[in-house]
Specification:
- The protein is of the alpha+beta class and about 550 residues long.
- The chain folds into 4 domains: about 40 residues; about 160 residues, Translation factors (Elongation Factor Tu (Ef-tu), domain 3), CATH 2.40.30.10; about 210 residues, 3-Layer(aba) Sandwich (Rossmann fold), CATH 3.40.50; about 110 residues, Translation factors (Elongation Factor Tu (Ef-tu), domain 3).
- The chain has 11 helices and 26 strands.
- The strands form 6 sheets. The protein has a 6-stranded mixed sheet, sandwiched between helices. The protein has a 6-stranded antiparallel barrel with strand order 9-10-16-13-12-17.
- Helix 7 crosses helix 8.
- Keywords: Coiled coil, Elongation factor, GTP-binding, Nucleotide-binding, Protein biosynthesis.
- One of its GO terms (molecular function) is GTPase activity.
- It comes from Spironucleus salmonicida.
- Belongs to the TRAFAC class translation factor GTPase superfamily. Classic translation factor GTPase family. EF-Tu/EF-1A subfamily.
């Protein structure tokens, strides 16, 4: 007990004085902690060569001395980052199968003039019943001397697209069917735009392939390539719309024949995928027999309308298998000293205060804000968001520190990956830095590929110059067989080795559908597309 000379024991307020003493003790402890933290920060920002790093026991492996760190950051700080990584497991465990209220993403593909934009423009008009807009678009189509394009102009809003009558960019729009929203992405029909599709379409749930009823044999190679393209996007379902059946007198025989042949084509390139196929007859321009929203007499053999097929598409249940987040960076800019990044979270959960690194620059950042439709505390995979990053000034292992936000900004590029720092420390990162990859590639119609060819490649949404180093194997009779061939011809599926001109972030396709996709161009023309199956790590 403390004694006070100016007060008698009877007058002494023990409770009040105990509270005062408690407050003073807390203030002293806080002051001491602040001084210690300040000293620790100085050590971490200006590491002395005389300070030896301390081996840290991994909270993941529980093996002592499992990791040796070359930096001089404190053991406590390193352990905090390891704990941050481990906590993801505790966070994910009760949510292994999480059904989020996310909007299903559907992409539409098909050859030029197959009628993709017309079908879905007509569907939009039938659902919205916007006669005024239809009248305006009909007037525009007549002025451009393309009277049958009025429905297509619901989606093709670009002046050049309307004048040329073709879709040239990925057109994204929301479709409301019975209060269920869908993110629709209408893709260009010409596969020369495949690199554009690759950078704008991220993780679709369903693909819609539009096929012309009267020109199947002539367009068979294009249909094969579009099917493989949907396999590349790892959709769970493909809806095949056999369009323009009004030109073949709404023939069920023609419809059944095309469905059978399309399924046969799919079986040659589906590579043991579990994609579900559904065929729907359509007459996109017909006013009364389109089979878009209601059954019709002329297409009475239809088992579903387009509307019903779309209503059956649901967002995949999120399976949180990963212990840490992996995101692809879509855009980046600096504002008010902070780095603003638009990203798509491919796997895991990202939270405020997470310490992350960007690959391949390997610079450390701290997540200080996450915004979707509003500011949130965490982001769950399969969502796009804007996040605010601040340079993380404490050095960790071989990861880099960038004090100046502008300096850090220069090291972030579209297509880079973002992962948790703790994943790097435990050697659990999925993204690899490489210059040499092995891919499985389908060569498109009228193209070939030779060993030694200089090509342009899009891996994920990154672009690089590359050279064909080797042709390993060719797909024959349902399997890859080794080969000594030096050239690949159209419609051949093969395993090849590419070497890029500068380092790139890469993940095998089986681990990430976004980072593992590849498009190859030769002489400014698309030559083939496929996915990463092997990485020679730096």
């Amino acid at each position: 007990m403390d004694y006070y000379d100016d007060q008698s024991e009877e007058e002494f307020d023990y409770i009040k004085q105990a509270q005062i003493k408690k407050i003073k003790d807390q203030q002293q402890k806080l002051k001491a902690k602040q001084q210690k933290d300040k000293q620790l920060q100085q050590i971490q920002q200006y590491p002395s060569e005389s300070i030896s790093p301390v081996p840290v026991e991994s909270c993941i492996s529980q093996q002592p001395n499992a990791l040796q760190f070359s930096s001089s950051a404190s053991q406590k700080h390193l352990q905090d980052l390891l704990n941050q990584y481990a906590e993801k497991t505790d966070l994910i465990t009760p949510k292994k199968h999480l059904q989020l209220n996310l909007i299903p993403n559907i992409i539409t593909v098909g050859n030029v003039d197959a009628g993709k934009s017309t079908i879905f423009g007509h569907l939009c008009q039938l659902l919205e019943q916007d006669e005024k807009k239809l009248k305006e678009l009909t007037t525009i189509s007549e002025q451009l001397k393309k009277p049958s394009f009025a429905y297509a102009y619901f989606l093709d809003t670009n002046a050049e697209e309307r004048e040329r009558g073709v879709t040239m960019a990925v057109n994204s729009y929301y479709l409301d069917i019975e209060d269920q929203f869908y993110l629709m992405q209408d893709c260009p029909g010409h596969l020369d735009f495949a690199d554009s599709i690759l950078t704008q379409v991220l993780k679709p749930d369903c693909g819609v392939l539009v096929v012309e009823a009267a020109n199947f044999e002539r367009l068979k190679d294009n249909i094969l390539q579009h099917l493989y393209f949907l396999v590349l996007f790892a959709v769970r379902k493909i809806i095949i719309l056999v369009n323009k059946l009004d030109k073949v007198e709404y023939s069920k025989v023609v419809f059944d024949d095309i469905c059978g042949k399309t399924i046969q084509l799919f079986n040659t390139i589906q590579l043991k995928s579990k994609i579900v196929l559904e065929c729907v007859p359509v007459a996109g321009l017909s006013e009364n027999d389109s089979n878009l929203v209601s059954y019709t007499e002329k297409l009475s053999f239809a088992q579903s309308t387009v509307k019903q097929s779309l209503l059956c598409v649901k967002k995949e249940t999120v399976k949180l298998k990963q212990n840490h987040p992996i995101a692809v960076i879509l855009d980046c800019y600096v504002e008010n000293g902070s780095i603003n990044v638009t990203l798509f979270l491919d796997q895991g959960i990202l939270q405020i205060d997470d310490v992350v690194f960007v690959c391949p620059s390997q610079i450390l950042f701290k997540v200080v804000q996450i915004t979707t439709f509003a500011d949130v505390q965490s982001l769950i995979c399969n969502q796009q968001a804007k996040i605010v990053l601040q340079p993380f000034l404490k050095q960790v292992d071989k990861l880099r520190v960038a004090i100046d936000p502008n300096q850090a900004f220069q090291a972030i590029h579209k297509g880079d990956s973002l992962e948790l720092a703790g994943a790097f420390m435990t050697k659990q990162t999925k993204s690899k830095i490489t210059k040499t990859i092995r891919i499985q590639l389908l060569v498109v119609k009228n193209q070939n590929l030779c060993i030694g060819d200089d090509v342009e490649v899009f891996i994920g949404i990154q672009r690089r110059e590359a050279k064909v180093m080797k042709i390993d194997a060719i797909w024959q009779k349902g399997q890859f067989l080794t080969t000594n061939d030096c050239i690949l011809n159209e419609n051949q599926l093969a395993s090849i080795v590419l070497k890029v001109d500068k380092e790139i972030v890469c993940i095998k396709f089986e681990q990430s559908k976004i980072f593992g996709r590849v498009v190859v161009r030769k002489e400014n023309t698309m030559c083939g597309f496929g996915y990463v199956v092997g990485i020679k790590e730096k």
